[in-house]
Amino acid sequence: MKIPRSSRLLSKAFTLVEMTIVILVILTLTSVGFISSKKMTDWKLGRAAAESLRSVWSAQRMYLADNPTATVSALTNADLIPYLPNNVAAIPTITSLAGTSLTILVNRIPPVVNAGSGIPYDPSPNTTDLLWDVGQP
What is d(CA 137, CA 135) in angstroms, rounded to the nearest whole number? Predict the structure, then answer.
């Protein structure tokens, strides 16, 4: 039995419903990818902040071990720079989630990220997640 030519052409084509479903699946996967990449970027910024805070905290401890009469409140950036790893020339800065550059307050133990006027910056809801925090129990 021979199939009519018009039936053969219709059986090889995609329907509008099938194409719509494929497009929706692609859009869903793309949106999930964008959301995941934003969270990954935030995590990377937090991880970099934690590493910077740990290096300053380590420098604080080494400085205070070499200078037992020094007080934490009197510490300055110039005091700690020689104790930072890799012979860096300045205290590291940190990039906030909004993209602004933040400084580290070195006259506190553990050091904190300065959000302005000495207010600690921590965008994470958890104070012990070890991303924007250092020295927490």
Answer: 6
Question: What does the alpha-carbon distance between residue 18 and residue 81 come to, in Å, rounded to a whole number?
Answer: 63
Q: Which helix (H) or strand (E) holds 104?
A: strand 101-105
Mean pLDDT throughout 81-110?
Answer: 87
Q: Supply the Cα-derived Rg of the chain in whole angstroms.
A: 27
pTM: 0.66
Residues 60/72, Cβ–Cβ less than 8 Å: yes
Name the strands in the sheet holding 112-114, side by side, starting at the edge strand that comes first in the sequence. 94-95, 101-105, 112-114
Please report which confidence band the pLDDT of residue 100 belongs to, taking 50, 70 and 90 as the band edges.
Answer: confident
pLDDT tens by residue, 28-61: 998 888 887 778 888 888 888 888 888 998 999 9
Exposure string of 22-53, with b = 16+ CB inside 10 Å and e = fewer, is eeeeeeeeeeeeeeeeeeeeeeebbeebbebb
- What is d(CA 131, CA 137) in angstroms, rounded to the nearest whole number? 14
